[in-house]
Each structure stands twice: as structure tokens, then as C-alpha cells.
Write the C-alpha cells for this entry.
Amino acid sequence: MPTVAKMQQTEKLLIRKAQLETFETEILTLEAGEKLDSKSRLFSFSPNLDCDGVLRIHGRTERAANLGSTTKCPALLDPDHKLTILLVDKYHVDAHHQEQEFVLNELRQRYWILRGRQAVRSSWSRFLLCSQHGATPTTNEMASLPECRLRALVYTCRSGFFQANHCHSWTSS
Ligand SMILES: [Zn+2]
């Protein structure tokens, strides 16, 4: 069973690898202590490399004392990289296919995906049910209780044996 520290280390390595595959020029520039080219797609983010060489942006919550360092400085990711796609799909499933905005906010606790909203929207199209139903989660309507169960419920409440009989009334029919 891998430890939390081991998993965090592996995650950093995977992110670093994905970043090298997509932002190599920017990483090499920053490692050389130089400023990013104004034409770079990362220029407006003013990213920095952390002590593990992971490219991070300074979020707007940087001064918040109650937030972890990954939330304050999320790691930059390219939306088209395989790792990003897997991460977005994982957050999508973990969120039980809820709203896209929720998934995006959860992702942004740790990662800053370029064109993030679009990346999350793309995830919806990869899941058959979500693509068919759009972004609107379906909720099941609660059916009314049949009359016989209602009568049993009223009776058991009055007779003072609610707990035992209530359970019985649900399982016996
Ligand atoms: Zn879904």
C-alpha cells in the first residue's frame, strides 16, 4: 500500500513530466532564470517553478492562510495532454456527474488547466450518458407511499412501536 507521501511524490513526477511535454520552452526559460517570451501562452499567468520543478501559477487566494500551497498555487496543465484528460474525467466521475462548474472548481483546488471550462465540457462528451443528457443531472422524483404503507405507519406511530414495526413494514411487503 503506497503511503500518502509516496503518492504525492508520484503525482508531482507525473505533473512535471506532463508539463515538460507541453511547456518545455517555458520550463527551460524559467530554469535559466529568464523571463518568459511575451508570445508564450503562459506569459499572462506569470508562472514559477516550485522546489520540485513543477510549474505553478500564483492564484488569487495566495494570501489566504487557511488554504494549502497547492490550492494557492495550482499546477499548470495543458488541456490536451493525456494526464489532464484523465484527471478531468476522474474529477467528473468523483463528482457523480454533477455540474461542470463544480468539477472545474474542484480541479482548480490543485490544477490550473488552460481553457479549463472547455476541458471540462469535453469530458462530458466522453461519457455517453452525460453527452446524451447534457450538463443537467437527472433527479428521481419521490413516489408517493401506497395507502397500505401509510396506514401501517400511522398505526405503528400511535401504538408506540414505531421503530420495530416501521422497519418491519418496509421489509415485509
Ligand atoms: Zn458525466
